[in-house]
Design goal:
By secondary structure, this protein is an alpha+beta fold. The protein is 46% helix and 14% strand. The chain has helices spanning 7-16, 63-66, 69-83, 115-120, 128-147, 175-179, 200-203, 210-226, 236-245, 260-269, 281-303, 314-352, and strands at residues 25-26, 30-38, 42-49, 54-61, 93-99, 102-108, 113-114, 160-162, 168-170. Strands 1-2-3-4-6-5 form a six-stranded antiparallel β-sheet. A three-stranded antiparallel β-sheet has the order 7-8-9. β3 and β4 (54-61) form a beta hairpin. Mean pLDDT is 82; it is low at 1-22, 183-192, 308-312 and 315-322.
């Protein structure tokens, strides 16, 4: 962790900004300003980096998690690994630390909204084209993390931010893995990720793999194109059983615009066995790219069908008639030429054989 002590310079900057208490500043550097949202384990603020004078986002974890030494150490390891991820579809982590007995992460500020709110704005899900475009970006970000050896563990639309220009960025890498270290001796009771979106193996309490993230991405895609979840939330225990044993209903039941090809992709991703899914988010992303390209080609073929028409205009008939007379004339000339040679060859023959 990189810590910066701004000393007297920092104090003067805070006074210029009119701050009344140092409690509003984390690590003597990050000034908390506007609350952006909150969840079960953290609160997110829009803040200002007083050293670099830029807008940032700060996720401040609750004291219940921050007070655990095991969690603090695991949090540090996961935050370091996540901070090394640099990809246009991943929210960049700038810093992390512990201040006022609270763990925090400093991230790039992403204007816009999260995917969950985006889905709720549409009653029957997003259009197939829009959903595919956003989902491919999510696969690109998560796939990059998989190549770096990181598993997200908590894939859900709440952790996918959409900018005004429709760029999707995935956030919160590694926090779910750090949570599991609070009670490391109770592996079977550990909850990895969010019950609504986690994989069957996560529901069973086993450590997740890239295929687990792929399953969660499948749940997100299902919700994007249908506007509903494959397993409606009731309670965590029932959700865990549904993910482990219950087959999801066909997405075409809720959205007839979904093609059979897309349905096949979704149901494969939601397989109970990890080996039956796509192995990584990269592989799933390539499948979705091929799907969208094939649909675009089909649409182009429908708009521009390859048909051939015979031209029966008067001019064409004249040209065809003219072409027939020329052929006849050439044939006659050939006949005359050949016929004129017959007497010549007969004369030659009698001259040689008198």
């Amino acid at each position: 962790m990189i810590t910066v002590n701004l000393g007297m310079v920092q104090s003067k900057q805070i006074q210029k900004k009119g701050m009344k208490s140092m409690k509003d500043v984390l690590n003597e550097r990050y000034r908390m300003e506007t609350k952006l949202g909150h969840g079960g384990m953290a609160i997110v603020y829009q803040a200002t980096d007083l050293m670099l004078e830029r807008t940032i986002a700060v996720k401040l974890l609750k004291e219940d998690f921050s007070s655990s030494p095991a969690f603090q150490e695991r949090f540090k390891q996961e935050a370091k690994a996540a901070a090394n991820l640099s990809h246009p579809n991943i929210v960049t982590i700038h810093d992390f630390g512990l201040d006022q007995k609270r763990l925090f992460i400093v991230m790039e500020y992403v204007p816009g909204t999260d995917l969950k709110k985006h889905i709720k704005e549409s009653e029957q899900g997003l259009s197939i084209e829009n959903a595919s475009r956003l989902f491919i970006q999510a696969c690109a970000g998560v796939g990059y993390a998989h190549r770096a050896g990181l598993v997200h563990c908590d894939i859900k639309p709440h952790n996918m931010l959409i900018t005004p220009d429709n760029r999707l960025k995935v956030t919160d890498f590694g926090i779910a893995r750090a949570l599991a270290s609070i009670k490391p001796d109770e592996i079977t009771n550990a909850i990895w990720g969010s019950p609504t979106y986690f994989s069957p193996e996560q529901a069973a309490g086993t450590p997740p793999s890239p295929a687990s993230d792929v399953y969660s991405l499948g749940v997100v895609l299902y919700e994007m194109v249908t506007g509903r979840l494959p397993f409606p939330p009731s309670n965590p225990e029932q959700l865990a059983l549904d993910h482990r044993h219950k087959d999801p209903p066909s997405p075409r039941e809720f959205n007839p615009r979904i093609s059979k090809e897309l349905e096949k992709i979704i149901l494969k991703v939601l397989s109970k066995e990890p080996s039956k899914r796509y192995r990584t988010a990269d592989q799933l992303g390539r499948i979705m790219i091929n799907f969208t390209q094939s649909k675009k080609q089909e649409a182009q073929d429908r708009r521009s069908p390859h048909t051939y028409h015979l031209d029966y205009s008067p001019l064409a008939k004249k040209e065809q008639a003219g072409l027939d007379w020329i052929t006849i004339l050439v044939g006659l000339l050939a006949l005359i030429a050949v016929g004129g040679l017959i007497p010549f060859w007969m004369w030659v023959y009698f001259q040689v054989n008198p």
